[in-house]
């Protein structure tokens, strides 16, 4: 085992071609495990926005699309030519694969910089093949292409350059990536600034200003867009925050709650922080000190999130979704965990069965809490049988967690380069092919999830209101005033029942929609000029049917 691990890691270390093969294999396994979906989750917003940019005649008079002017990213513009060439889906999948590949490359090189050990770099890649959930529940790799997932490898590259004393290039990359995903870059920028200020005598004030100006220069396109379009909102809007927090986004804003799923993610995030400090070498290198400063910066950000999410929801803080800094906490924690194992391995300070136990904890721990428990136990456990039991237990917990997540529809593996052609897809295709572009539909507002198509994605037709619109209205408080009365029309009394449990809120919304009487539907139809009403079976109405399949029925409403 030791010889095999040493041999493989050294061969990969020595030849680039072996590294690329390794990263490609890791990418294939990760994408297969996490799944890949088109047009679902956050793409339920981005794909319709992209189509609207490519074809302005779509969704006429749909106020929802004004939100795209406040989504400060140039990322989706690059895909407009591919949409027009009708190769959008395959292009996005290839980009997703490349982003995954580059992330593994960046992780490997970052571990190389930190530990200068082939085994550490090898184990770091192995660790991130499998998901590890931290604050807010976001894994490192996701199941669809998003601007934040595309940005990640370049941010890791910037961190690597910063550690290698090339801060000017690091800030340059941050500036470029600011045009792709502002939120992610803000976290790394905050870490760099925090570390630079702590070491300002060493760095020099003039050098720091030069680096920051470099960032501003390369970030200027999106900064000009932002400040020519809207100001930085430092005000308080508690009603807006209450709605977005008590709908779909509680996990992004809440660090103090009674929701067990959110508490699970918080516990995971705290565990990752502890793992980092436990595996940090006693004799710290200069880079160890820099990463420590990054972690302290992240902790400051998380404290700000606690204050904002609990007592003082300043708009700019809520819009920035700063709990997402937990992604970098997870990355640093598992990098140092890999470095810790490699140090024990290289110095032969520990028996083989314990090494395997630690590698299992590093790799197969969806919850960092599992890794933390094993990390705390391994020094005091010497019974071979008990160590074997712990190894099997890690695997059992890993598999059991996947089963639970699959049952909850949180995990659904499968490679879907194109939209899944189910009843939802078919009903949207009918709407696209058989109604004018200005047609308005009344559709189930809860028709959205990680792996389900939202109405606008394929149909390219407007709807009165959806729950998923709140994903984007988190960036523009004023949109709530437009959204709320429309949502209350299609899902009466649902908002009053909402809590910080998004799964429950989706069920509440669905029940509220199907509580509508035919008189309610006619009233909504006249109010918003909606000629079509969509329902899921087995619900039935007396309106004329224009289309139906096994899952859905479309009714014509005569105005």
TrEMBL record:
Record field: transmembrane: 20-38, 87-107, 119-138, 145-163, 169-196, 208-227, 264-282, 294-318, 325-343, 355-377, 389-411
Residue ranges the record marks as coiled coil: none
UniProt keywords, alphabetically: Membrane, Transmembrane, Transmembrane helix
Annotated protein name in UniProt: Glycosyltransferase RgtA/B/C/D-like domain-containing protein
